[in-house]
Design goal:
With 228 residues, this protein is an alpha/beta fold. It has eight helices and nine strands.
Length: 228
């Protein structure tokens, strides 16, 4: 917009989680954006203008992401938005971004993002159909595993990756057991024990913030299969 072009700064908004179940994830992403902006500004900025970053908390929910995005696009001086990065949230805010005609960069990786058909949305990481398949290939072809356990989040990111992993395993005649969980869960004992009792020799963890907790509990329960 003309008001954005005439501004003394280049304003970029961040739609992230500073509160709620994903708060830890949002904190380090906010730090990364702040660090990058500081480095660019210290080097003279862009086209002689300093970067100004504004932050909106999506409270770790889809409705929160939509509300935060609506607030961001109501400010004509904002040139681009970074986040949300959860695929479910990225899909939820897609129409807001499309209607506003604002550049939106997301770390979401679900193949369902392609269905949004949004020319303003720019995924900045490899899609799940590349990475999830690579994880399964590594477990089978490199580690030589023959019975795969899949731990996945019951959200768009998790189920999308799960389906891609399962598709590869079924095409190659590899046995598997899949166990899901919800965002914010803290006890994965039941799922891990099911994978162990099924004789799995590898665990593919396809989730977000919960990966470290799953790995910790895996060791505590004595699951000795590989992790991909």
């Amino acid at each position: 917009s003309s008001s954005a072009g005439d501004a003394d700064t280049i304003k970029i908004a961040v739609n992230g989680a500073w509160t709620g179940d994903l708060a830890g994830n949002g904190e380090w992403k906010m730090d990364a954006v702040r660090m990058a902006a500081d480095e660019i500004n210290e080097s003279g900025g862009i086209l002689g203008k300093q970067i100004e970053v504004v932050y909106e908390d999506n409270q770790s929910t889809q409705n929160g992401a939509i509300n935060a995005m609506n607030k961001i696009v109501s400010d004509d001086s904002v040139l681009a938005v970074i986040g949300p990065h959860m695929s479910t949230m990225a899909i939820a805010v897609s129409d807001v971004v499309k209607n506003a005609g604002i550049i939106y960069m997301t770390g979401g990786t679900s193949v369902s993002l392609r269905d949004c058909d949004n020319e303003w949305m720019f995924p900045v990481r490899c899609m799940d159909d590349t990475v999830a398949k690579a994880a399964a290939e590594f477990a089978v072809e490199e580690l030589g595993c023959t019975n795969i356990g899949i731990m996945y989040n019951n959200d768009e990111f998790g189920t999308s990756g799960r389906d891609i992993i399962i598709s590869y395993l079924e095409e190659n005649g590899v046995d598997y057991v899949a166990e899901g969980h919800n965002t914010g869960d803290t006890d994965f004992t039941g799922q891990i024990l099911k994978l162990e009792q099924a004789g799995t020799d590898c665990m593919i963890i396809w989730t977000s913030n919960d990966s470290t907790t799953i790995v910790k509990q895996r060791y505590e329960l004595g699951y000795d299969g590989a992790v991909s």
